[in-house]
Design brief:
The chain is mostly helical and 402 residues long. The protein has helices at 3-25, 58-80, 83-88, 92-126, 132-141, 151-169, 172-180, 188-209, 228-244, 256-259, 261-282, 291-319, 325-332, 334-351, 359-382, 385-391; strands spanning 215-218, 221-224.
Amino acid sequence: MFATSVALSNLRACVILVVLAFHSVLAYLGSNPADPIPFDKPPYGWLVFPIVDNRRWFGFDLFCALQNVYLMSFMFFLSGLFVWPSLARREPGTFLWRRFVRLGVPAALAVLVLMPMTYYATYRVTAVDPSVVAFARHWFGLPFWPGGPIWFVWQLLALNIAAVVLLRGLPRSVDFLSRLSSSAAAQPGRYCCGLTMASALAYIPLALTFDPWRWVQYGPFAIQLSRPLHYAVYFFAGIGVGAYGLERGLLAADGMLARRWGVWLVGALAAFLLWMAMTALTLQEERATQLGVQVAADLSFVLSCATGSLAFAAVFLRFATRRWRIVDEISDRAYGMYLVHYIFVVWLQYALLDSDLFAPAKAAIVFVATALLSWGTTAAVCRIPLGSRLIGAERPMLVRAP
């Protein structure tokens, strides 16, 4: 098995654990609202903070701020790596059908079944009548159908459709994306600059037009208005890296990105601190409307996102090229864990509301229990043939470009 393939498998496991940790600590942020958020009053802040605990720790704010900058972009990048190898050996219709079965069907089931069960805990926190019947009345009275973290799966499906249209409709686009990645193994800094500039062009106009933090909800579909094109840049960047050849490109285990992991780690930390400083300026009333400050904050975001993503990859390419059984198990179940984890997070946070434990202890309990329950649930579902087909482990093929 290629060293890059092992590192990416380990990275996949780590990413899903970071996602679980991110959601596990949201109830305990120091910046959370002072009181629980009413269920049926706009702007429906419980979509972001489904449970608000009175135990807080500011360290979780720093952790979540870091993940908010780069994590989802990096997940779109990783999702794009094996798109071209898969599409190249299948007809477009077959590829799209497999993507629909893999992404669309589980997402629909999660939204229709798991999300009402998840948010029932949120409703109970402020409900006068906590019964299931009363909850159903409030739920169907909402102007949308909350989808929680499933927004990522919907956007990923849309990007897969866009990839088929582009890569099959314009065959030379694959060569173009591949060429953009061709020098990345030897010059990852140059690649980072290109990625930063591309995402800046995609992100900044939307961030200036809309509030960078603003989400909109259409039925079960949620979109952060400033980021759809930014995520598309990372997804197609992943396609380009995968099309060029993982073992000889940016993610080569012996490439310059992996060799200089320390430099990338320091650079990512510096870029993140810069983003924090610029974002703090945008929160000052006298500077919030200054165009220069807004643009500087948006530029620092795309820079921090690019350096953070590449630093994360660099560390795993350098230190995680060995296989561990438990990590393989998590990697194989990562997609299913993503789909089901939120119900465990929210109900565990709800169950601990009256506990006198301090915030890090509560968060640790929620994280560990969520990880175990999510893995166990996914493993159980995958023992069913249909469940295995929908959310079972995929074994993508590593290919070398000629």
